[in-house]
């Protein structure tokens, strides 16, 4: 809360570009949606750290840069009892109109394993309002419509991937359960990859030894770990891309021939006590 108020105070006291100031202020609700989650102790706990650099010249904000640290990506695939996944998943599932959900390949929220068990506790009205704030923030910061659409498709892919289940085979490997083949196909389409390539990443490991390719089949546990690991990495890379895009849009007037002053604001993540460190 304190870093948010400090940022607002500095921007509003500045004599700089009003549009740039509004863009900077809209970054906070955008990053909160993708980087905050409900924990046992806090309904809006920051699950990452960020360092905001405000750049001034002649008392006016000329640009900003954000550095993000240590996103708790394990939350994507696992939440302890009483906790939830990142806000954006609930906001998106509540806020996107039913007729529009087919564009992203979204189904009923309770079907998704990564969030289904906590869905009953979600305040749908609050999530709809949160989704509208996120969309408004993205447009005000400067994201293009296609970029916004691509973000939602990838988030949908993360949810679909979480529903891919496996069953053992006699040869020691695994296969995707017949009832989960639709989820595999959906995830591959949402990620823009071939279904066979995604299946291979989940069910085996390829390595090179002395120029020879060796294929090792995964056990059921290894396949499930691979699935969750891919989901976490995709979400983490998506979050990193959002921050890079924000920095690109907030670069502002950075004339290297003129001296700039800088104020840095460190907003560290909340501390939690996990039963298992993932």
UniProtKB/TrEMBL annotation:
Q: Its family? A: Belongs to the TRAFAC class myosin-kinesin ATPase superfamily. Myosin family.
Q: Which GO terms describe its biological process?
A: regulation of actin filament length
Q: What is its main location?
A: other
Q: What is this protein called?
A: Myosin-3
* Record has Zinc-finger as a keyword: no
Q: Which PANTHER family match?
A: AGAP011099-PA, MYOSIN-IIIB-LIKE
Tell me which residues make up the Myosin motor domain.
1-278
The entry's cellular-component GO terms read: cell projection; myosin complex
Subcellular locations according to the entry: Cell projection; Cytoplasm, Cytoskeleton
Q: Which SMART domains match?
A: MYSc (SM00242)
> So where does this one cross the membrane?
none
Matching entries from Pfam families are given as: Myosin_head (PF00063)
């Amino acid at each position: 809360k304190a870093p948010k108020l400090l940022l607002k105070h500095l921007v509003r006291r500045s004599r700089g570009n009003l549009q740039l100031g509004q863009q900077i202020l809209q970054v906070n609700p955008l990053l909160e949606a993708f980087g905050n989650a409900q924990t046992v102790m806090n309904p809006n706990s920051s699950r990452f750290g960020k360092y905001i650099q405000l750049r001034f010249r002649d008392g006016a904000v000329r640009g900003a840069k954000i550095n993000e640290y240590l996103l708790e990506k394990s939350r994507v695939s696992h939440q302890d009892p009483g906790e939830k996944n990142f806000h954006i998943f609930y906001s998106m599932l509540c806020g996107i109109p039913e007729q529009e959900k087919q564009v992203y390949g979204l189904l009923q929220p309770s079907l998704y394993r990564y969030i289904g068990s906590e869905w009953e506790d979600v305040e749908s009205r609050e999530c709809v309002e949160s989704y509208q704030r996120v969309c408004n923030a993205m447009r005000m910061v400067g994201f293009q419509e296609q970029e916004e659409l691509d973000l939602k498709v990838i988030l949908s892919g993360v949810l679909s991937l979480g529903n891919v289940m496996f069953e053992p085979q006699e040869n020691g490997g695994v296969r995707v359960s017949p009832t989960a083949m639709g989820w595999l196909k959906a995830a591959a389409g949402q990620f823009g990859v071939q279904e066979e390539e995604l299946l291979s990443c989940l069910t085996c490991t390829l390595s090179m030894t002395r120029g020879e390719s060796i294929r090792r089949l995964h056990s059921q546990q290894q396949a499930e770990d691979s699935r969750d690991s891919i989901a976490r990495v995709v979400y983490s890379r998506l979050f990193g891309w959002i921050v890079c895009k924000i920095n690109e849009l907030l670069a502002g007037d950075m004339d290297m021939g003129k001296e700039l002053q800088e104020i840095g604001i460190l907003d560290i993540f909340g501390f939690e006590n996990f039963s298992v460190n993932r």
